[in-house]
Amino acid sequence: MNVETALKEATTVIDGAIGAALVDYGSGMALGTVGGGKELDLGVAAAGNTDVVRAKVRTMEMLGLKDEIEDILITLGGQYHLIRLLKGRGASGFFLYLALDRGRANLAMARHQLKRIENELEI
Amino acid sequence: MTALATAAVSPLLTRLAAERATGALLRDRGTLFLEDGRIVHAESPATPGLDVLLTTGGGLAPERWREAVDRAGARRQVARFLVDSGGLAGGELEICHLAAIFDAAFFALSPGSGPSRFRRGATHWIGSVRSVPAAAVERETRRRRELLDAVWPYPQLDTSPVVPRAAAPGQTVTARQRALLAHADGLRTPADLAWVLGRPAFHTLLDVRRLAAAGLVETPLAPVRAVRAATTLPDWMTDTQSPDVALLRRLRDALEASL
C-alpha cells in the first residue's frame, strides 16, 4: 500500500476522521495529506506537531525511560488528534497524524485501525 | 510574508511546470528531473543520494542496491526492480524517495546556485516512483529556508565543522541528536555527518542549528572580512568593457559540441 492509499483509508475507514497526514519529523514536512480542508491546515499541523513529538522524546530522555513512544493523544473540546510514530526499519523519523471529530469517533477503534494501517504501509 | 519570500524560487522551473515539460533542469548545486511538468526525481552533490538513505540510513544491503542498478539501470527501472525482487518494501522506497527529492531540491534551488539549463527529454535511471508538483517543491524549499533561520539564524553553521560543547547539568538530547554528536569530531561539516549517518542533508542542518541554539554545538563567529586598504585601481581595470561576443559564441559552440 502506498502513502496516499494508506491516508485515504485512514480517512474513510476510521469513523469521525477529519484528516490524516504522514509527517517527516526531521524536517517537519508532510509527505502526504488527505482531508483537513478549511478547518484544519494539515501542512501547518504537521510542522507544529513535530515540536510535540520532539518535546516528548526529550522528556523521556530526561526521565531515563528506556521505552519507545507508540502514540500520542491530544484531546481538544471537539477533536481528538492522534500521533502514531512509525517503527519500520527505514522509517525512524516519521509519524502518522490523524484528526478526529470527537463526537463521531470511537477512540479505541481509531487507535486500533491506525495501527493496522501502519502495518499495511510496509515500511 | 515579504515580497522576497513569495517570489518564485526558480522562474524557469515555474515555466517548465506550466508547459508540462519533460527533462532535466541542471543547476550548479543539483539537478531536478521533470516529467509532464511534475518533479519525479532530484539529486545534488550536497546531499546523500537515495542509495545512501536506503543503505546507511535504512536497512537495504548495499549489494542489493548494486544488483538493482546493474540489472535494471539500463532499462531505467531500478526502483521497480528493488520492490519486485523483494529487496525493499514499496512504502519504504516511496518515503525515502520523497525525502531525497525534497532534500536535493532544497540545495539545487538555493540562491546562488548559478544559471539553469534544461535538457529536454532527459530521464533518470531510477525510474518512476512518485511525482510531486513543482509548486509544492518550491513552497517546501522556501519553508525550509525560513525554518532554519527561525531556529537559529547563523548560516555559517551549515558549512563549518560541527564542534560539540559540553551539556549543561540536566540538559538532555534526543537519541537522533546523540548519534549526530557522537560523529561530530570537530572536522566533519553537517554535510559530512549526513553521509555518515545516512540522513538527508537538510535534516542534519536543522539538527545542527537546533543543537547550536541549545548551546550544545559551537556557533562559529562570522568570518572576519579582511580589511583592505583602499587602493585606487587604474581606469583600464575599472572601466566596464563590452564583452567579446564573438569569443563567447565560439566558447558556447565548443562547449555544446563537447557535450
From TrEMBL, chain A:
Lineage: Bacteria, Bacillati, Actinomycetota, Actinomycetes, Kitasatosporales
Domain of life: Bacteria
UniProt name for this protein: Secreted protein
TrEMBL record, chain B:
Protein name, as recorded: Transcriptional regulator
Organism from which the protein derives: Streptomyces toxytricini
